[in-house]
Amino acid sequence: MAVLSTPRSAVQLASKGTPVREHLFRTLLIASLVVAFIFMVALLSYVFVEGWPRLDSRLWENMPSIRNPDIAGAQSAITGTLWVISLTGLFTLPTGIAAAIYLEEYADKTRWYNRVIELNIQNLAGIPSIVYGILGLGIIARTLGLGFSVITASLTLGLLVLPIVIIASREALRAVPPSIREGSLALGATQWQTISRQVLPASIPGIATGSILALSRAIGEAAPLLMLGAVSFIRFNPDGIFASYTVLPIQIFNWISQSREGFHVLAAAAIVVLLVILLLMNSVAIWLRNRYQKRW
Amino acid sequence: MPNVTVRGPEAPRTIESLDPVFTVKNLSVFYGDYEAVRGVDMLIGNREITAMIGPSGCGKSTVLRCFNRMNDLIPGARPAGTIQYHGEDLYGDHVDPIEVRRRIGMVFQKPNPFPKSIYDNIAYGPKVNGVKGKMDDIVEEALTKAALWDEVKGKLKQNALSLSGGQQQRLCIARAIAVKPEVILMDEPCSALDPIATTKIEDLMQELAHDYTIVIVTHNMQQAARVSHRTAFFTAEVDDAGVRHGRLVEFDETSRIFTNPSDKRTEDYITGRFG
After folding, report:
1. What residues of chain A have any CB closer than 8 angstroms to a CB in chain B?
2. How many domains does chain A have?
3. Model confidence pLDDT, tens digit, residues B191-205
4. Does residue B3 have a pLDDT over 80?
5. Within chain A, what is the greatest distance between any pair of CA atoms?
6. Between A185, A198, A295, which is nearest B114 by CB?
7. Which domains does chain B have, with CATH numbers?
8. Interface TM-score (ipTM) > 0.85
9. Range of the domain at A268
10. Are B108 and A184 a contacting pair at CB < 8 A?
């Protein structure tokens, strides 16, 4: 070991003093994380403390009231949210997954129209949600004549999150190694058999995670629904897809706009309910991902 | 000459009496405008092991993937010339590639079991091909033929990915056998395996050659010498326009390729002077 025997090497191996830049960079990274974390904790503790007096069964057993905050509840908004989000999923998941399968497994990427479609899906994911509200109002509510109903809201929110579902599903499909497709095709399986029996089952965890996150976004949306009749004062649960409705984000917005303090407490309590529904959906996504995660 | 064992006992029949499974005539393969392999002529004998050897990028895998039309999956890939399977044009208009792949199985370089149970891996092929009959028997028979049954019979419901690399590759062979093909193509089946697993696969190939026609692409010359009846030596050559093409240099009985090659390039390759 000629190198180690020379005295110079000892100098080379010694520390060059405190790496200030290393520390600085590390601190900067941690600080960025802390900013996000502090705001999240502040938000959560604020709404929780504020809404605590009204976090009881009145919230989901009673209907909204503009006269008395003590007897007002959010039942119609909670059921409305559940109706809208279920129908959104029913509409957007099959459509989005099917579109992803086409783009990932069938589309010839050398064709210009497939590249145009791909590019536009990326762009669609970035369009402000209020624009989708206008689209829903013009085409779904008026032209198709579906009016201000649960189905109009679901179709509009479905369109809004469709690009997210497509992008997430494509990534999940792409994560399935090509060797699995080759192995299946080499056994005389058709392309559809290969997709339905090998590729799709293997990509379910990724698709499910992405889909639930997309629906989580839809559940918190208020802007497009402002244009689609959700602002009306609703004291009944939806009884079908053509019923009038309201949803939690809109109900929260309504209560916060009231002047009386009691309604602000109610709004905070409703925010907690909305957050709980969101966290439940995200937990399901994480559980699905861990449960069915595949390693190749 | 390197010290290699050349498969001896049963001398192959003459090339005329081969009863060829595949007859390849003037085959070229294009990827778009690029001619990857040019002018290949060879015969694949019935129930023989044919080895394709040569340096990287000489087109041997490309040719192998024509035999079960796996090249169809690569956009822009197209063959010219003819490949006949028992006298029928493999690329004829009426030929269904799905049907081709059912009869001509394939084992890949990296073991690629499906992320399912051992049982489901074997049962998948017969199922998609609509095979009737007792699936348990089909699975046992295939695993037995692939010399894997004794090792896995107690854990058929276990995930196939829990097996060792060598076991996974034999599972892939069993999976191919389960659809009762006539030919098994193997694309460097041992290159990801250790020597002991390699020996097991080689023994298995010898065994399978009684019932199946096997075509194997290998980087390992000793492997070709040990297992095959006939050997095709490919190389890559630059033409007058400066473009590289894969070419078939020599196709003969394995014993002759390794002891008395007729082409200087073959001799240089097998003695280790290039490649």
Report:
1. 108-110, 177, 179-180, 182-190, 193, 197-198, 202, 294-296
2. 1
3. 888 999 899 999 999
4. no
5. 90
6. A198
7. 18-115+181-270 (3.40.50.300)
8. yes
9. 74-292
10. no
